[in-house]
Structures are given as C-alpha cells and as structure tokens.
TrEMBL record, chain A:
Its EC number is 2.1.3.2. This is aspartate carbamoyltransferase. Belongs to the aspartate/ornithine carbamoyltransferase superfamily. ATCase family. It catalyses: carbamoyl phosphate + L-aspartate = N-carbamoyl-L-aspartate + phosphate + H(+). The keyword Transferase applies. NCBIfam families: asp_carb_tr (TIGR00670), PRK00856.1 (NF002032).
From TrEMBL, chain B:
One of its GO terms (molecular function) is dihydroorotase activity. The keyword S-adenosyl-L-methionine does not apply. Keywords: Hydrolase, Metal-binding, Pyrimidine biosynthesis. Residues 53-236 form the Dihydroorotase catalytic domain. PANTHER family: ALLANTOINASE. InterPro entries: DHOase (IPR004722), DHOase/Allantoinase_Hydrolase (IPR050138), DHOase_cat (IPR024403), Dihydroorotase_CS (IPR002195), Metal-dep_hydrolase_composite (IPR011059), Metal_Hydrolase (IPR032466). This is Unannotated protein. Its cofactor is Zn(2+).
Length: 315, 428
C-alpha cells in the first residue's frame, strides 16, 4: 500500500490489518515514554490547504510518536496565497525530500491528483465532501474495540445523523461500516442526503426518533449553521426538533449504545445534551484512538520497522 | 503566381455527394473544381486510394482563444488543428477577451483567420454585450459585416425577456441564435453530471434538468418569435426528445452534439482528472444512446467539436477549480466514426453539409462537382491510429482521447484551392 486516498482503496483484510497495527500503537501510547524510533529518518509533511487544527495535530502527534520528522505547511500562511499552483507547491515540498504527504484540501480529489506530482506516499486527511479515510478507520476502531473484536461490526445497526450530502466523514464511514457488515441508516432531511444512493447499501430515515430505540451506534455529524438553509428546513429549531440529540432522546438509547461524533461538536445545534453526561459517549475516545490509527497508517505506508516499536527501543 | 495556376488532382477516392457516392478523380484549378472524371492529370497528384472525398468539414463550435488567451490557442494554431481534422471552416466562439460583441473584434478574428490561411474562420457574435445576459449587441452592425450566428456560449442567456428581444432582432435580420442551454441557478459550482459517480465522489452535480429547462423555454420563445434557433452541444436524452418534438411541430430549430458527448461517460471522472471536465458534462450511457438515435433520425443536425483549448497548468488544478473544456478538432472524425456506425454520406451530412447550412456559408458544404469551390476533405473510415496529446497541432494538449485507438482519419485537406494538409501533415 503506497497511498491512502479513500476507504475504497482498502480491502477488508487491509482494514483489519491496519486496526490490528493500531492496537499495537495504542499500547505504545500508554507507555510512560510513548515514543518509538520506527520511522526515524522519515519525513512527513502535513500539508493543510484547509484549516483543521485537530486533524493536523493528530497526524503530527502520530508522526512524532514514531520519530518521523514533521514539516508543517498551512495554506493560510504560505505561497498558495501568492498564487502558487497545487502542482508547484507539491513539487517544491517534494524536492525537500518528503516521504509522505498528509493532505487536507477543500476540493474533492485533490490528494489523488497530488500522487501524479510526487513519488512520496499521499495520505488523505480529508478532501472536500469526498473522503476522510483515517476518520473511518478510527471510528471503526472505536466501535469494534468498544464491542469486542472486529466481527463485532456484523449486524450492528449504526445511524449516521445530519448533513450526509456534504460530509466526507459520512462517505468514508458508510463504505467501511457496510463492508464490515454493519447495517447503516442515514438520518437526514432529504435535501441533505446525497442523490443516487441506491447502490450504497444503506437505508434512510427522516427523523432521529425513528431509529433512536434500536441503534447500537448513534453517529452524530457536525451540522454547519450555514447549511441549515440548504436543508430546506425553515429554521435551526425545526432542524433540531428532528435531528438533534436531546436529553429526552438520549434516555431512549439502549444501555449498550454508543454515541459518536467526529468533532468539533456544535453544542446547541446537533448536540443539545452534554456528551459527558452520556455513558455511551465515545467522543473523546475517538480522539485518542485517532492517534493510534494514524500511527498505524503512517507506519504501514512508510514501511516502518516493527522491531523498532518494541519496549526499550532507543529514541 | 505559379502555385495559383497549378492544377491539383486527387486520384482514386470515392466522391461523397448527397445524391451519390462514386469513384472518380477530381481536378482543382484556381480554387475551383475544374474536372471530375477518370484518369485526370495534374501538376500535383494526391493519392486518395481507400478514401472518401467530400466537401470540407465545418465546425459550428470552435474556441480559438484569440484575442485574450493566446497561451492556450491562437487563430493560427487552432486553424492548423482544424485543417488536420479535415475542416475547411470553423465558427469561432465569441468568448474571447474582448468578447466578439462588436464589429472591431469580429473583423480582427476574421482577418487573423485570413492571414493564417488554413481554413475559413467564421466569427460568431455574442447575443448580449460581454456575454453578460443583459444588453443586446448591435445586431444590425454585426449582421452587416456578415455575422450570421450569435451566441453567448459558455453562458446561457438566463433572462427570458432578454432572450425574447434577441430572438426578435434575429428574426428581423434572418440570423440564427445559438444557445448554450444551462439554467445557472441549478448548476452553481457544478463539476460533473449529477449522477451516481458525482454523488460518491462528493462534488456538486450538474443535473440534466438544467439543460432541458432552457431547451424547453427557448422552444417556446421560437414559437413566439419565429426566429431561427440552434441548440449547442446537447447532452441529455430529454433535450433530444424536446428538439425532436419541436421539429415535428415545424419550428425552425437545429441542434448539434459533440464527439465527446457521443463517446465518453461521466464515470471517466472517477479518477478526478480535470481533462474530462467539460460543460455541459459527460453524461450516462442512456444519454449517449439517445444522442446517437437523435443524430441518426435527423433530430440532431450536426456534430460540432466544442474544441476548447486550455493551457496545461490550468488543468493541473483540483477538479472543482479547473476550467471545463477539451480539444476536439483533430480527433472528431475518428471519434465519430469509432463511436457510431455511419455511412460516408451520413458523416459528410453531419460534419459538413448540415453545419455549412446552419452557419449560412455559401462556399462550404457544396457538392464535389465542376464549378464548385475547392473546399475539400479527403478522409477514410479505416485507418486505425492512437491519439497522442504530444502530436497535436493545437497549442494546448487537453485531449481526453490520449492513448485511445480511433478508426478513421483525414489524409488531405484543400482549402480555397490550396493543399493545406497532405498525407496527414499540415503544409504551413
């Protein structure tokens, strides 16, 4: 595996292997010195053409725990503002000797295009509405490790609630969850559902109330305030009345059900309940797992040395 | 001048005329077909064995980019690409900078075409000033200098009242308006056909309805004004049916389809390569089937390239920001002949005779007969060749057919009595 651009690039076997590697990385993260020399001498460039502090920090932390050198490029303070093309930016950074690009871009497909202009590995850290494959991996990791092992996805009912149409998280999660055997229900106003989803292997529901009693996982998406008007919902209040997680609704969840969210949370929009009051919340666990999963992906793409992750490896 | 008096003979080709297809030699002297017959002699003999000879192709839809974007194409480089594609006339689209909404720019484009001398460059005019859809251009002045086709191509005229006034002016002068059918309110930010691929790729979609709504509106306006209307680059099955019904009603409408809308599917964009981004977008197999049916039954009159050169770096952008458009002139015959099963007469009909009539070009689309102007293309439907973006005369290389095998190729092109392409090579 050279690049990770989309969940579609991964076979089920590869997903499982990455998650097993993430178990190993989780263990490293619990050590008193949580740093190993597995990627020493490798250079990872985090190239964010769109702001995302938390994803960038997660990747950079993952790279540093594996002892890779990290270059940080953010479009806001760079040559992109001076009109440099995507190709020129990538070729310039490539010429500095980069082994992997971690790319966030507002345009769907940009990470895939970048692969033409560099010999380095390209890791998609979120592109447009298209894909965010490490999010799907960390979500799957969180669900499976909460319920037991990997086959614990089979037959589970997962509702994804909110703006599915404009969500790369949803596109990645839907693909990975369904391929691992989960039943996925999309809960959204019809204007925020993607068109032509007949072959996605999902069902839909038009209110959170239809599914809340029976789900194993309630996955809440961030609802951007400016999308409310595009949802054809007359008001934020109307939206929340059908699609927000409230105290009353939370009380109807099964005792074993998980509540997840990719962050950042919009309190008062999709989350009208304090997540810390929800026993099933895995929202902070997702963040922690994100580092282990991203370590696993970087390690796998860059052909790291497993022996150098052993306890006592020198840094 | 010796070259002017030189006689040119094309030997061994089958003549393709509307009334017959037959084997004969053709002799050209002083820009005119001087003889058609057996065993003709001449100063220059061109081999036409295995080929057809027809009036030169006429492209109703060429972006030559000059003035304004000479980095992508010039009138000369675009004319050379046209000649290599067998075209002896191209209608130059008006989305230049400045736009072809005034007499001076129109005359400049025509003059540069004459200087290049590779094909007839026919400037179109804009429908509205600056192609902004608000004020009408000076129709009388532009018509007086010979403009017969008006379009805001790249933009559809959104305002129905503006379009009605333009059609009224066109009806009075007997000129044709050509519409780029796109209701822009339905295509904001659109990147590709609004279908299954688009949805899984997570990009904004360009729904078929956005085209069909404007086709429907304009047919109603033609009914109201009686003006001649040409529909540019139809891309959906629904549009074909609308035009079919309008023709059955006897309305003066014509339509074109591009080689790429006859041959390429929306799923080619799955790799996010902007080379396949075009407006209107590549659509589905059902649309292609109906476009082919429309071309076969005469609903669609002509194949037009929408040749749209873009400098390399502009296509090295993300799919949503890269400009739409692809090259077409040098591959049109091969694509049409590979994608469809057409007779030689059908090919000449959709690539020469019909477009010459729509653009009102008296020197083009004429039969191969004594006394007719020598605007001629010699081509075959049998040569198999592989397209290379590195071997194109166009200044840009944004062909979607790179690496693909096509059947059918142009061997010689004669424009205004001069050999401009011989054995597939441009002579100037």
């Amino acid at each position: 595996m050279k690049h990770l651009l989309s969940t579609h690039d991964l076979s089920v076997e590869q997903m499982i292997s990455l998650l097993e590697t993430a178990d190993y990385m989780s263990e490293i993260n619990t050590r008193s010195i949580s740093k190993v020399p597995a990627l020493r001498g490798k250079t990872v460039a985090s190239v964010f053409f769109e702001d995302s502090t938390r994803t960038r920090l997660s990747f950079e932390t993952a790279a540093k725990r594996l002892s890779a050198d990290v270059l940080t490029f953010s479009a806001a303070s760079s040559s992109v503002n001076k009109g440099e093309s995507l190709r020129d930016t990538i070729e310039t950074l490539s010429a500095m000797g980069v082994d992997a690009f971690v790319v966030r871009h507002k345009s769907s497909g940009a990470p895939q295009q970048i692969t033409q202009w560099t010999n380095a590995s390209v890791l998609n850290a979120g592109d447009g509405w298209h894909q965010h494959p490490t999010q799907a991996l960390l979500d799957t990791y969180t669900i499976t490790r909460s319920f037991g092992q990997l086959d614990s996805m089979k037959g589970r009912t997962i509702a994804i609630v909110g703006d599915i149409k404009h969500s790369r998280v949803a596109r990645s999660d839907i693909d990975m969850f369904t391929r691992l055997g989960a039943e996925v229900i999309l809960v959204a106003p019809s204007a925020l559902l993607p068109s032509h989803i007949e072959n996605w292997g999902v069902t839909t529901a038009s209110s959170i109330d239809e599914v809340i009693n029976s789900v194993d996982v309630l996955y809440m998406l961030r609802m951007q305030r400016e999308r409310i008007s595009a949802s054809n919902m007359p008001s934020l209040r109307e939206y929340s009345s059908h699609y927000a997680l409230t105290v009353e609704r939370a009380a109807r969840l099964s005792p074993h059900a998980l509540v997840m969210h990719p962050g950042p949370i919009n309190r008062g929009i999709e989350m009208m309940v304090d997540p810390s009051d929800l026993p099933g919340s895995r929202i902070l666990q997702q963040v922690t797992n994100g580092i282990a999963v991203r370590m696993a992906v970087l390690f796998t793409l860059l052909g790291g040395d497993l022996t150098a992750t052993a306890t006592g490896g020198t840094v | 001048m010796s070259s002017a008096t030189q006689s040119i003979v094309i030997r061994g080709a089958q003549i393709v005329n509307p009334d017959a297809v037959f084997l004969a030699d053709v002799r050209i002297v002083n820009g005119i077909i001087e003889a058609v017959g057996e065993n003709l002699q001449g100063d220059l003999v061109l081999d036409g064995t295995g080929c057809y000879i027809s009036s030169g192709f006429v492209d109703l839809h060429t972006h030559l980019r000059e003035p304004g974007k000479e980095e992508a194409e010039t009138i000369e480089s675009g004319s050379r690409a046209a000649a290599l594609g067998g075209y002896t006339a191209v209608v130059a689209m008006p989305n230049t900078d400045p736009a072809q909404d005034n007499v001076a720019t129109v005359l400049f484009v025509r003059e540069r075409g004459i200087e290049a001398g590779l094909c007839e460059v026919v400037p179109s005019g804009c429908i509205t000033v600056g192609r902004l859809g608000r004020e009408l251009v000076p129709y009388d002045s532009l018509s007086r200098v010979g403009v017969t086709l008006f379009t805001d191509d790249g933009n559809g005229v959104q305002d129905a009242h503006v379009m009605q006034r333009a059609l009224t002016a066109a009806a009075r002068l007997g000129v044709t308006l050509a519409q780029h059918c796109e209701v822009s309110a339905l295509t904001e930010g659109a990147v590709m056909h609004d279908g299954a691929c688009c949805s899984s790729m997570g990009v904004p979609g360009w729904p078929s309805e956005a085209e069909e709504q404007m086709v429907r509106r304009d047919i109603a306006l033609v009914r109201l004004t009686g003006a001649k209307m040409h529909f540019l680059h139809l891309s959906t099955a629904g549009s074909v049916q609308l035009v079919r019904d309008a023709k059955a009603e006897g309305l003066p409408v014509t339509a074109e389809v591009t080689p790429h809308h006859l041959s390429l599917l929306d799923e080619m964009l799955l790799g996010f390569d902007p080379i396949f981004k075009v407006n209107p977008p590549l659509r589905t197999a059902e649309d292609i089937a109906e476009l082919k049916r429309g071309l076969a039954d005469g609903t669609i009159d002509a194949v037009a390239t929408d040749h749209a050169p873009h400098a390399g770096h502009t296509k090295e952008q993300p799919l949503d920001t890269a400009p739409p458009g692809m090259l077409g002139l040098e591959t049109a015959l091969g694509v049409v002949n590979t994608a469809l099963t057409l007779t030689a007469q059908q090919i000449a009909q959709v690539m020469s005779w019909a477009p010459a009539r729509i653009a009102s070009l008296p020197q083009q689309g004429r039969p191969i007969a004594v006394g007719e102007p020598a605007n001629i293309s010699v081509w075959n439907t049998t040569d198999v060749w592989t397209v290379s973006r590195h071997d194109l005369a166009s200044r840009s290389n944004n062909t979607p057919y790179h690496g693909m095998e096509l059947r059918g190729r142009v061997r010689h092109t004669i424009y205004n009595g001069q050999v401009v392409v011989q054995e597939g090579k441009a002579l100037k």
